[in-house]
Amino acid sequence: MKPSIYGLRKEVLIDWLLEHGEKKFRANQIWEWLYQKRVTGFQQMSNLSKATIALLEEHFCINPLKQMIVQEASDGTVKYLFELPDKNMIETVLMRQEYGSSVCVTTQVGCNIGCTFCASGLLKKQRDLTAGEIVAQIMLVQHYFDQRVEEERVSHVVVMGIGEPFDNYANVMDFINVINDAKGLAIGARHITVSTSGLVPKIKQFAENGLQVNLAISLHAPNNEVRSSIMRINRSFPIEKLMEAVDYYLDNTNRRITFEYIMLSGINDRPEHAKQLAELLKNKKKLTYVNLIPYNPVSEHDQYSRSPKEDVLRFYDVLKKNGINCVIRKEHGTDIDAACGQLRSKQMKKSS
Predict the structure, then answer these.
(1) Do residues 216 and 336 share a domain?
(2) Domain of 284?
(3) Do 247 and 124 share a domain, yes or no?
(4) Transmembrane residues, as ranges (predicted)?
(5) pLDDT exceeds cutoff 90 at 113
(6) With contact defined as beta carbons under 8 Å apart, do 273 and 280 qualify?
(7) Cα gap 155→139, rounded to integer Å
(8) Are residues 152 and 25 in the same domain?
């Protein structure tokens, strides 16, 4: 398949056009057609010559994704199952928030991180998504908005779907550059959040890139014993190394980090776990934030269940009393396949 033109940063598109005998200003024209007028075919770019259109069609496609399933929840959440050109499938989620419309994108086909509670890892990593395939997820949601009567736009992006974003670092950075471009979708850097399970070298690299993009870390446990039992990555990058990378990030950026913490009944939700978490973060209170996440059960991981509400509230209370900024995440899409990777897993079972 031809690569998606969505994957090109503007400066890369300029260089490509110059190499193929085109003028530099063509890049701005193409950019406007793609991200402001949001055309779906090169033939719609009416101020380009036939030769330029033919050149683009020879080397690129626009949208590499095929929409397979759309699930709409009663709270306005929409979950998409997309098919890639190689017939692999990925998920994308639209969440309506008080502050705007947020889209959660996938960055890999499958995942090798090995979190034992997660539906995303039921399929081992097949490949990385290209930057164009990641951008296309945003564009298809925006096209969904464009077809409706009321005006709506993608205002926030979270890179928290299937896969480990920092295991696909270069493509994820290209994706961020494209959607952040002021002449394109113009999604503000501070409205973009990238999540990692704790790839220490990439956290340090991310700290040095100068972007104002938000960082979230999937912590899910306050000590090595529990974290290693539910997250295989902790065996390579234990909490001590992870916290060292966190300190490096905070020192270099002075930007707040969010710690994601899925509440698993009887596993990581005891008051003593909350006290350990508060101790772990006590020297980082001003620049850290804990997001307590109700667990969406996964049938293939029936050893786990969601923490009762009273246990979540007790955990939250311990953190607050110890001065830790925290919140209990509002649930989205509970009446559809809510857990990341569930819809894809269900469809793959049907196909097989």
Answers:
(1) yes
(2) 66-351
(3) yes
(4) none
(5) yes
(6) no
(7) 12
(8) no
The domain that contains 153 carries what CATH number? 3.20.20.70
Active-site residue, 225 included: no
* Residues 70 and 15 placed together within one structural domain of the fold: no
Specify the pTM. Answer: 0.93
Check: CB of residue 311 under 8 Å from CB of residue 279: no
**CB neighbour burial string for 31-47, b if at least 16 within 10 angstroms, e if fewer:** bbbbbeebbeebeebee
Of 38, 59, 80, the last residue of a domain is 59
Residue holding tokens 């969440």?
95
Per DSSP, the three-state class of 196 is: strand
Kindly give, in sequence order, each residue whose CB lies less than 8 Å from that of residue 273, ignoring residues fewer than 6 positions away.
221, 222, 223, 226, 315
Picking from 35, 59, 83, the residue at the C-terminal end of a domain is: 59
Give SS3 for 207. Answer: helix
Say whether both 286 and 178 belong to one domain. yes
Strand pairing category for 257-263 and 214-218: parallel
Positive or negative, the CA dihedral 171, 177, 179, 180 is positive
Q: Other C-beta atoms within 10 Å of 209: how many?
A: 12
Beta strands per DSSP E along the chain: 66-72, 78-83, 89-97, 100-104, 108-109, 127-128, 154-159, 192-196, 214-218, 257-263, 288-294, 326-328
- Choosing from 22, 91, 133, 260, the catalytic residue is 91
> What are the pLDDT digits (tens) for 308-348?
999 999 999 999 999 999 999 987 666 666 555 556 555 55
- What total of structural domains would you count in the chain? 2
Q: Which of 194, 218, 222 is nearest to 206 (CA)?
A: 194
If you count them, how many residues does the chain have? Answer: 352
CATH of the domain at 33: 1.10.150.530
DSSP string, 274-301: HHHHHHHHGGGGGGEEEEEEE----GGG
Please tell me whether residues 215 and 323 are part of one structural domain.
Answer: yes
Catalytic residue among 61, 104, 326, 340: 340
pLDDT per residue as tens digits for the range 150-178: 788 999 999 999 999 999 999 999 999 99
